[in-house]
Amino acid sequence: MVSNDVRRVEAGLAAWAAFLTPQGKFLHEFFMFSLGNAICLECERERRDDLMTRLSKYKLRAKVSLEAIDTLSVGAAWGRNVEATFGLRAEPGMIAPLGAGVVYTDPRLPDAGVRWSLLADNASLVLNELGLSEAKPEDYDAVRFSLGLPDGSRDMEIEKALLLENGFDELGGVDYKKGCYIGQELTARTHYRALVKKRLMPVRIDGPTPPSGAPLTVEGENAGEMRSAHDGTGLALIRLEAWRNAADGILRCGASHVTPQPAAWMKLGAE
What we know:
Blueprint: H1 7-10, E1 15-20, E2 26-35, E3 38-42, H2 48-56, E4 72-77, H3 82-85, E5 95-98, E6 101-105, E7 114-119, H4 123-129, H5 137-147, H6 184-192, E8 198-206, E9 215-218, E10 221-230, E11 233-239, H7 240-245, E12 251-253, E13 256-260
Antiparallel strand pairs: 1-2, 2-3, 4-7, 5-6, 6-7, 8-11, 8-13, 9-10, 10-11, 12-13
């Protein structure tokens, strides 16, 4: 049903995956990990009910139950050697128990740090014992922007975005050997035929921060759209051909200049 191989989770790793429409368009993205005898999906809080409804349609007679968990607190930590703080190896998807929950290295990129799901009642106590300082959501966004990592429907348009436009290939969010899943055909065809024409990538913003969805242009030509952004940095879905045709590599968005800065892991193909 999902873009990644759940057997990775059964083998004791965390994984990143997406749930697609039959046409291969984005619906939900989530992190998967084992907790006890359950497989947990860390998803967007505001869209959890929609994900559960969609998954329930495929349950049929399978001997499984779907439950919403309200007792866990989700968080992330980053910085030099942060994995060692939690006793983890600096490899994607490594997982270990923490309190009554789990902590795992971000399965997308080592530089993204670690994530955890802890009982909300004692999360602060557990983290204080590790000597971590509390950050703001904007601080995590700044890290995410610099690495080019999407954050669900903030950056991927529902029923429109393609996984490979948003880094799921390089970031390990798609398994091409697992067999069929919902939306697999378009994802595989896009991969094997190298049909990706747009990419979500980090941008520097000179001028007012544009709202999500604001159009980007090069000499009046459509060059993409802004996604989430804050304080001079953000993410934007860039039309690669238009960007490459820009003489100075700078795009316009209203009164602002937007400069794409591809992350090191991105494979943008031949220019």
